[in-house]
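Quick log. Single chain, no ligands specified.
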Amino acid sequence: MTDSLLNMKAFVATVRAGSFSEAGRQLGIAPSVLTKRVGQLEWSLRCTLLRRSTRRLQLTEVGERYLEVIRAIVREYDEMVAGIMRSPQELEGQVRIKAPASPMAIELAEILSSFQIEYPRVTLEAVLVDRTVNPVEEGFDIVLTMMPSSFHGVLEEPLLAFPRVLCASPSYLARRGSPHHVRDLVNHDCLVFTPMGPVWTFEGKTGVITVAVRPRFVSNNNALLIDALRAGSGIAVVSRAAVAVPLRTGELVEVLPEIPIPDLWVKALVPATRASLARVQALLTAIRDAFHAVAATSPPRVSGAA
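-> predicted structure:
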């Protein structure tokens, strides 16, 4: 264990015990050693964390601000060491995962159920929501997302590419006409998925084309957006898999199929401070294997298809 981590452990123990002497008694360490370690931590941070007096110790304003951060670092280290020392069957603790509320290519419920059968001492919390989530700020271990957002201190792993399609209902096109170029979309009723925003990207023959559309309907729920699309409310860019059936039956039709739309990647976001936890890695592996299985069974894509 590094000196820095020992110093942080000494600080956390001293705050918890309320004094160097009590912390030393609990840890079986001389109070002078704890005093020295806390002093070294303060020196390395260039600030005073504890205000000493003959009667008691008191956190400074800076100490209060750093306490939770230092506690988290110590806790992450202890959990990592405990995970390394256990066999896979002995994994325990909680894993919080966020996934889109919209259907994905994998059956997340089945994956989570199988995972808990294999690791009965791990508790899971799954949150389904169609919005951008910073896993560090909101306390998630794994975030499955198709949003392009990136965050500081968060690792990203691409899992599967989702082809997308620009489509509308025949009733809408009969009423408003079909666009002849992506630039014509500015004059159409566009349905926008909130996290993706109103700037749509296409792959033109001479390069990328971006169009800032004028949203007629906006929703953070993909299923609601597709319902509006099928009802004839406008044109939308959606996952091809999500509208495969209405496209096949003619309830929806593809618009501007000759101008491809870049694939949307589903990826896993994992805070760097949580990535080394064995239980997080075990669940991430199960999810990764499920997506790889989908990719292996998917039919090959036609070059240039949207």
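The chain has a mean pLDDT of 86.
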